[in-house]
Amino acid sequence: MLFAGLDDVAFEGLVLGAKGWVSGLTNAFSCRVARLCMRRSARVILPERASIYRWFMPLLHLDAEHDLVQSIKLAEQIMGRGSEHVRPPRLPLAGARRAAVTAMVEHARADRPAID
C-alpha cells in the first residue's frame, strides 16, 4: 500500500493512486484535507480537489522548514485542534517567525474553501 508523504507533491501522489497521506499539517484543516483525499467519490471532482490543494500549499511548505514541528503545533493550536507544546530541545516559535506562521494560518483560515 502506497502513501504520500512529501507534502509538496502529496496531491500528485493521491491522484496517481496513493491510498493515504502522512502529514502533520493536515490535522489543522482536517475537513478540507479529507475532501482533498476523496478520489473515487462522485461528489468530489478533480478540479475541486486541486483548488483545495492550491489553497493549502503555502502552509504545506512549512513542513520543509527547520522548525516544522513548532509550526505544525502552532497551526493546530490556532485552529483549536491541539497545543503548541513541544518537547525539548525544541522551543515554541517566538518573535518574527511566530508572527509570520500565525499570519499564514490566520489567512488560510479566513480564505479556506467552502465545503458541503
Detailed description of the structure:
The protein has helices at residues 10-15, 30-37, 46-60, 68-78, 95-111, and strands spanning 3-4, 20-21. It has 116 residues and is mainly α. The chain has a two-stranded parallel sheet. Helix 2 crosses helix 3.
Describe, in short, the structure shown.
The chain has 116 residues and is mainly α. The protein is built from 5 helices and 2 strands, in the order E-H-E-H-H-H-H.
Beta-strand percentage range: under 5%
Order of helices and strands: EHEHHHH
Number of strands: 2
Strand order of the largest sheet: 1-2
**Quaternary structure state of the chains depicted:** single chain
Radius of gyration in whole Å, from Cα? 14 Å
The main β sheet shows up as:
2 strands, parallel
> How would you sum up the global shape?
globular
Helix content, binned percent: 40-55%
